[in-house]
């Protein structure tokens, strides 16, 4: 029977494996969240809300229809952390373990998911790499948890409570889970720059992409200086930095005389920086985003739609997709069809992929916004915010999540799922097998734009 | 001196010629609208509003900060019609005349603007073709004017008045100008299916694209049946039809129990059909669009953003751009990189173009929405509606146009201009000369989406 499963897995396409992994992870998480002892006595959570929480946690989004601290026991909260790890570290480590398990030779595409262009990894190298990924992430989480737990001792009566809050906050930030057990995200720490700075570092390290972390580690341990960062690392890191800075700047400027009126510059700056970081897909907030003006909410929505780096705990169309679209546009307007950057040429197929991802993401988001607008009676901006937050697996919300009807909850769940899996995987899953055209038709031009 | 101008024109790129034509047309229109006798005595129109009206009329958009019938004399209204012709027929006929004038050999791209793939046209053929375009359009306008003028005699006291209203309505509909001299668009004819049907036909004939009209004429005059419609005509016409039907259906469904409550099915159907037609860029309305629900307003915005066929009087990203994006997505999800349709293969460069147009259009619209949101205090949907209406040169509005501040008016003017000129022309104008890469860099893959 085991060999039948192995055989079945062997014939699956990688994209389908990823999708399948998440289906299994969601089912498992759903079961974990229905275990006896998970809920606080007297708290009744219906099945759809448990499913919603499971999907939100596995996709490390953080949109929630319930209040975690008022719903789950300490045991339940530990389960939540487990699910966040399952989702956050999952795709990179466990996913690759599955491939190893079924003895499938790690092909180009699969290897790309863990490393862009370093061909030196053989099977045992991949195992080492995955262990390294897990080690790095657990290390980051441990350092974050330690810092926060020790700091939290001043706010909580017992060491145990401080530890629980510290560990949960660190896991939620590093996996970009966006959940909280304070009942009000990081609002209690709106003026605590230490907690915010730690959280920002954890969120960035989780969302910057595992290949970047691995390469950074290699760079730091490589004393002779011959190390070359991959094109992927350069592009994604620069784009991440641009988006973070641009988001901070835009929030700061737009809200300067509005929401930030009367605040000191550093208060306003930290509010801007933290919320900008959260769109890249942390999801934690230090301010009620529904109190921002609409232009800011729109900026946040666009940033969430873009999302984080590929091969990270974040979602959205991903930084590289936007980067390639921008590079393409610049080159095209200059009459060039090759994209040259950092002394390298972007492969044509990646330009195609970015196009497909952008078109599909826009169509999907538009359709979701429209459907939820028809189903609910919330303001347009609140719905746009909710949809982009789900697709970008950011998890920020203007507060409408618990009021959604079941059909809308299902739409949001689907968006979180697709946002996490990534549109490219989703596209190949729905699209079926690769096939080359067997013959060519004559070409004919069409007038465009 | 004349030869110097000819020499200057000869060295210009076609895209720059188109842009230049519109600059000249706007300047001329602005002067026409400032002539003595144009304004009704006592009506003071400031320069920015005259410029806005000129840009709106030349780009045949129809967004207006003034009430035409209360502002302009009959002479002024005749000037308006002249400007609409300048804008509507302009790019196709006068634009090509300029090329002929300067003796420039009609190259592939220029010929495509009047005909996609029929290589049989030499210089004198092009002259014939342009004359044919003008003849066809004037014929359509004349038939429309006659039908409407005769019909209008029942509403107006004098034949002269009926004629003026008939001619203006026909010109405004055929050029997709979207202006009215009733002071309230076609709302007075909300239950007059004859006037609406005539208008729908005129709008569609103007927005379906000149190549389609020419090919249709050739097809009808070609008795032996050997005529083959071009790929362009097939794609644009089918997409036009799909958008028209889909728009009608969506408005009908969404508003059925809302705005259309208590109406007969044919009333609701005609409201849906007419407003759907107008997004493809007619701009005339039979209902106050601000009374629709937000999902409908969003549907209308998306439809206006898409716009009409290329080489037509409409704007937006154009039907073919969307069609190629959709075809690309379908083929890509099946693992194919060639787009095959109707026994033809789409050229790679056209896929690139559609990508560039879509990315640029979205960025431009987003930026405009954001800026106007910061500048004004209108609802998000009203601003989205206004921006997409300007870019799609549709001209429908939720009523905020006259209240816009000068900076916002300038943004809307720029959008109308770019929407009319077309993003491809705009892109090549800002991008400078074509240049081939002189050397290739090594290719490197990047993780997408
Ligand atoms: K999140
Ligand atoms: K129009």
TrEMBL record, chains A, B:
The chain crosses the membrane at residues 15-35, 47-69, 75-102, 136-156, 193-214, 235-254, 298-330, 351-374, 410-430. It is found in: Cell membrane. The keyword Ribonucleoprotein does not apply. Keywords: Cell membrane, Ion transport, Membrane, Transmembrane, Transmembrane helix, Transport. The keyword Transport applies. It holds the Pfam family TrkH. It is a multi-pass membrane protein. This is TrkH family potassium uptake protein. It comes from Jeotgalibacillus marinus.
